[in-house]
Amino acid sequence: MKNIIFIAPPATGKGTLSAMLKDKYNYIHLSTGDLLRSEVESGSDLGQTINEKISVGELVSDEIITELLIKNLEKLTNQNFILDGYPRTTSQAQTLNKIFNDLNISDYIAIYLKIDKEEAKRRALGRITCSGCNKIYHLYTESMKPNQDNICDICGKELVQRSDDNEETFNKRFDTYLEKTAPILEYYQSLSKLVEVEVCNEKEQTLAKIEEILIEE
Ligand code: AMP
To answer: What is the pLDDT of residues 46-82, one digit of tens each?
Structure first.
């Protein structure tokens, strides 16, 4: 299976799709958002700096995020991987390209998950995540509700809403996406690595489209 880079506006379901692909095809799932949130939870000074950005819907600096990625590089060499949330700027895409060249990684695709802003907002406002294992649930989608209110089906820990999943921060995250991240679509297009997938209502349908691409490529 090819390595995958997900490029997407906020709350498109890239975390959920990554988890499904991981379970089915044994991918390593590297989510920079999850890595950053763990750093925030650790209560470190760095975590505080990161939280100041995440909580207002801005990007963490390229320096911080690239350092975090470099610390996790061995994950990119052992097994096929999904990069969820990196790169998010042209500079990060260029850094990643250098890293891939150094590690001899060329077998990858960049999947652009296309979604309408209102649908992404609906998803962000209904999303709840397990505080233990990070499994994602959705309050407004029948098939993604937990069996018991506020309790994770898998590990039994409490479900929480992400601090950046409120309307104001969502709007800012969406603007940040358009300004900083959308330009990297052209970058991957120029490398002939870009494929586009329109997000469907049911996650299984979106997954099926991705699987078709992975088989074709
Ligand atoms: P996500 O979980 O992918 O939605 O990311 C949550 C937040 O973490 C984003 O809104 C950014 O503030 C921050 N973040 C995640 N990945 C990156 C990145 N590659 N560069 C900068 N900030 C990031």
So the answer is: 999 999 999 999 999 999 999 999 889 888 887 899 9
Residue-wise pLDDT tens digits, 165-198: 999 999 999 999 999 999 999 999 999 999 999 9
- In sequence order, the 6+-apart residues with CB closer than 8 A to the CB of 25 are 1, 80
Q: Rounded distance, CA 209 to CA 101, Å? A: 29
- Contact call for residues 8 and 115 (beta carbons, < 8 A): yes
Contact criterion met (CB below 8 Å) for 60 and 50:
yes
Q: With a 6 A CB cut-off, is 88 part of the ligand 1 pocket?
A: yes
Establish whether residue 32 lines the binding site of ligand 1, counting it when its CB lies within 6 angstroms of any ligand atom: yes
Distances (CA, A) of 183 to 32, 49, 153, 177: 19, 26, 38, 9
Q: Is the pTM of this model over 0.85?
A: yes
CB 59 near ligand 1, within 6 Å = yes
Cβ(12) – ligand 1 distance below 6 Å = no
* CA-34 nearest atom, ligand 1: 2
For the CA of 86, the nearest atom of ligand 1: 19
pLDDT of residue 216: 82
Q: CA Rg, the chain, in Å?
A: 17
